[in-house]
Amino acid sequence: MEKRINHLLNQFQADTLNNAEKQELLELADAENELVSKEIIPMIMQEEQSAKQTRVEGNWENVLQNVLATDKPQKLKRRTLIPILRWAAAIIVLIAVSITVYIKSYNPTQKVHVFVQDVLPGGNKAILTLADGKKISLTDAVTGDIAKQSGLSITKAADGQLIYKVSEVVRDADDSKVNTISTPRGGQWQVRLPDGSVVWLNAESSLTYPLSFASAKQRIVQLTGEAYFEVTKDKLHPFIVRTAKQEVEVLGTHFNINCYADEDVTKTTLLEGSVRVFHNNTHDTEVLKPGEQSVLSNNGINVRNTDVEESIAWKNGYFMFDNEKQESIMRKLSRWYNVDVKYADASAKEVMYYGTVSRFGKVSQVLRKLEQTGEVRFDIKDNKIIVYKEDKKK
């Protein structure tokens, strides 16, 4: 996020901002934004100063004074400038709580697009496949015990989480018996594994894991799609996540893996702890530190610093797009809203977006935000989203 702020300030100073970027910067620099409370800012300031984590570069005070003095819409009056550290911290807070949408329109008079059809967002939906092949719809299962197998009880909590409880009888049980939890398009689920680790599954994903880790030297699970992991620490029994193209080994940590088959790369993002990423084909190995993301392709593994909030935005209930291509965004919408996507104009795939929007509104609400850039338009017909390049649509 800090990089984005620096980019906008540099572009403003060079007088190369387009209208949409100018509106975005004005909103960000509004010093009296009601979302930035007097209690939050001092706390963030203290943390930022002590840890020296603020990465906004350069002496921007004069630049920001110029931003705030720039002609702006009637509702944006000139404000007294807060110190640079407060301003940067305030922006970080806004992003963290995911309240403000940063996709801004460069055409305030643009008419609101009315969609004839609409699609509801996804929700808690999943299928549990037991070791004996029996399938249980977790969506329809009532709260409480839903199954017992080999000395384990499987309980659906009030919040929808799936919880395993292992009895003393199965402490030395055969760990070759596995369960699989699968989410459809338009579904998500949370499961607490037999070792206490918690996994959040995104739409169109699956996780296969043993009934018990008791007799295993390694806690091995198989993942397709995307999941966020909070792994219980156990130095004697490393936790292994296997996907089609990589293997991730951890002792106890928080991380996200995106390994959808229709994505060109597999991304592993580390929030806490340490993980080792192993490339199944090239045999490359990289160890990640918190705040880093490995991008695994056919050529090997590339490690980069990243905004971890973007990687786990789906888990926290929103979409976050950081200069992301339209084609990538539509794959996310397709999975979550269980819709197909058709491009009336192939060039629309290349349109870039930067912004944050809730995952729990109807799909039309998301599309309207994307339309505000003025570069694309959408239609919804028979559970299909049709994408047009704005200057070509008739």
From TrEMBL:
Top-level lineage group: Bacteria
Residues of the FecR protein domain: 180-276
Stored InterPro entries: FecR (IPR006860), FecR_C (IPR032508), Ferrdict_sens_TM (IPR012373)
Keyword set includes Phosphoprotein: no
Residues annotated as transmembrane: 84-103
Cited Gene3D superfamilies: 2.60.120.1440, 3.55.50.30
Alphabetical UniProt keywords: Membrane, Transmembrane, Transmembrane helix
Residue ranges constituting the Protein FecR C-terminal domain according to the UniProt record: 318-387
PANTHER family the record matches: PERIPLASMIC SIGNAL SENSOR AND SIGMA FACTOR ACTIVATOR FECR-RELATED (PTHR30273), PROTEIN FECR (PTHR30273:SF2)
UniProt protein name: FecR family protein
Native source organism of the sequence: Pedobacter punctiformis
